[in-house]
Write a structure and sequence with these properties.
By secondary structure, the chain is α+β, with helices and mostly antiparallel strands. The chain contains 8 helices and 8 strands; from the N terminus they run H-H-H-H-E-E-E-E-H-E-E-E-H-H-E-H.
Length: 212
């Protein structure tokens, strides 16, 4: 039996006309203000490992900055296996450059795909393994146009077009089980991005005022 998001949630998502608006709604979904999001089981919030791992604030902040995240996981080491911390999504070139540079400086793994064309390579990094070291899932491959149209079918055509054209950014901690490095690196990078944006906004405001 098929399940669908509520009419109220559908109205919010279908009204989103830009990547930025979809990202803002994703932040609200992470924080529990919206029950459903495109591409996931209706009426279900973030995974328990996301909420219990304290990732909601930094993921919501990433989305509000303009990085539309669609998959993430904390670093874990348990009897059944290990996870590498990782997050991926879609953003603009300026924010992708800031986050990727900070991640590389911190020794993290970065996959960055240009959404405007096919690069010819589609590598990924393993992010889950069992106790015997067998790999189960990975992050970082380039997402196809068909996948994105399906995943974001509830948003407007113009928003889907921006998502397809966006930079596809994945950042992964290479150390199995490490919990904090990825997220603290993102927080620091977003602090710098916010400061730079504030300076540019102030300069633009001053210039407009001077031209009156």
């Amino acid at each position: 039996m098929f399940e669908f998001m509520s009419a109220a949630d559908y109205e919010r998502w279908s009204s989103a006309t830009t990547l930025q608006q979809v990202a803002q709604l994703t932040a609200l979904w992470l924080e529990g203000s919206i029950d459903s999001q495109p591409g996931y089981m209706p009426e279900s919030g973030p995974a328990e490992e996301t909420t219990d791992g304290g990732l909601v604030p930094v993921l919501a902040r990433c989305n509000r900055a303009g990085w539309l995240t669609d998959c993430s996981q904390p670093g874990l080491s348990i009897a059944e296996g290990d996870q590498r911390a990782g997050v991926e999504g879609f953003t603009t070139p300026d924010l992708a450059d800031v986050l990727a540079a900070a991640a590389l400086d911190a020794g993290l793994v970065v996959h960055l795909h240009d959404g405007t064309g096919w690069s010819g390579r589609n590598e990924y990094t393993a992010v889950t393994r069992d106790e015997q070291g067998r790999i189960f899932t990975g992050l970082g491959r380039r997402r196809s146009r068909r996948e994105l149209n399906f995943q974001y079918s509830e948003v407007s055509r113009s928003a889907r077009r921006e998502i397809r054209a966006a930079q596809q950014l994945t950042i992964i901690d290479p150390e199995w089980g490490r919990k904090d490095l990825l997220w603290t690196t993102l927080e620091t990078a977003l602090d710098e991005f916010d400061r730079t944006r504030a300076v540019l906004t102030s300069a633009d405001t001053d210039e407009r005022g001077g031209n009156r």
